[in-house]
Specification:
single chain; alpha/beta; Spore Coat Polysaccharide Biosynthesis Protein SpsA, Chain A; 2 domains; nine-stranded mixed sheet; 9 strands; about 45% helix; elongated
Length: about 325
């Protein structure tokens, strides 16, 4: 029984596949099985995988397309390791990635997912993510807090709770999974850059979403918001408004901002319990409200006056002055 089961679906990845597989086989921690699934590739991906003779590789070669999530779940069901590590066919893992993640999870049994920071291949800087459990769960309200191919998960928890990916949530299947896992234990990102992530036209997350995918992304986010605020006794309209606060991509109109402010005030006044300390939650809501006011100055002075209507708003004089000037000229971004 290996310590780690590595799951890698492959589809038409011949350009980067050899380097990706080699980065796993070169890990300083070598007690793992490597489950590779060729998802009906029409290029030379299958031949590249077969060129590796490492006994840790368990290769399944499909001659037709199964789908990314289907193969992730197949890998989880076939895995025999204590931990499940993810890897994509176009990324590069640093040599000590597995060792550092394994050491952390072994020493911290209350943690169920361990990701890492990452850099973009060809980019200059690493991409920072929230590190600690509380910040990960808080920021999951408005971002996806893990680099999916960097994570390592505690297998027993996944099996005990029957936690698998849901194909209906593609391409937000990872966010939806983290949202469900968050209820079962602590989450962590190591502060080290242990994965090099490749951005190119075939990235699933970068492709234009269909209307159905837009809807599933919305539902995934709403599901997490609902869980996070479950003790606040909010109605469906309130939860939808919180989603709007976090994710709306256009300016807010006055009535919408007013409703957001009133909702935040009610939430704060309830003194409810959240998955993280209430002070952090209330500060985030206040910060998002002020930000929305600053990006909706096309409504004029109303956007400025709203920040004085509610007690929870805290901002510097400089920030207030900038908002006032933008509101006076009805600035449009």
């Amino acid at each position: 029984m290996p310590a780690i089961s590595v799951i890698m679906p492959v589809y038409n990845a011949q350009q980067y596949l050899h380097e990706s597989i080699a980065s796993i086989l070169a890990q300083s921690f070598d007690d793992f099985e490597f489950l590779i699934f060729n998802d009906g590739s029409t290029d030379n991906s299958s031949e590249i995988i077969k060129s590796f003779k490492d006994p840790r590789i368990h290769f399944t070669d499909f001659d037709y397309n199964q789908g990314y999530v289907t193969l992730l779940n197949l890998g989880m069901k076939n895995a025999t390791g204590k931990y499940i590590a993810r890897m994509d066919a176009d990324d590069i893992s640093q040599p000590d990635r597995f060792q550092r993640q394994y050491n952390f999870l072994e020493s911290n049994p209350e943690y169920i997912v361990c990701g890492t920071l990452f850099s973009v291949i060809g980019g200059r800087e690493r991409i920072d993510l929230p590190l600690e459990d509380e910040d990960i769960k808080l920021r999951m309200l408005y971002i996806t807090p893990f680099c999916h191919p960097s994570v390592m998960m505690r297998a027993k928890l996944l099996y005990d709770k029957q936690v698998y990916y849901k194909a209906d949530y593609m391409p937000a299947e990872d966010h939806e999974l983290w949202g469900r896992i968050a209820a079962y234990g602590k989450l962590r990102n190591l502060p080290d850059t242990l994965l090099s992530y490749r951005v190119h036209d075939n990235n699933i997350s970068l492709k234009k979403r269909t209307p159905q995918q837009v809807q599933t992304l919305y539902q995934s986010r709403l599901n997490y918001i609902t869980w996070f605020f479950e003790h606040a006794a909010l109605g469906s309209a309130d939860l939808t408004l919180l989603h709007t606060l976090f994710f709306k991509e256009t300016d807010f109109y006055y009535e919408e901002l007013l409703m957001c402010g009133e909702l935040i005030q009610r939430i704060i006044d309830k003194r409810t319990v959240y998955p993280v300390p209430s002070g952090k939650v209330h500060s985030l809501l206040a910060e998002k409200f002020f930000y929305r006011c600053t990006t909706s100055t096309s409504i004029g002075l109303k956007s400025f006056l709203l920040t004085y209507k509610f007690d929870f708003v805290e901002s510097s004089r400089v920030a207030q002055l900038k908002l006032l000037l933008k509101a006076l000229i009805k600035y449009r971004k």
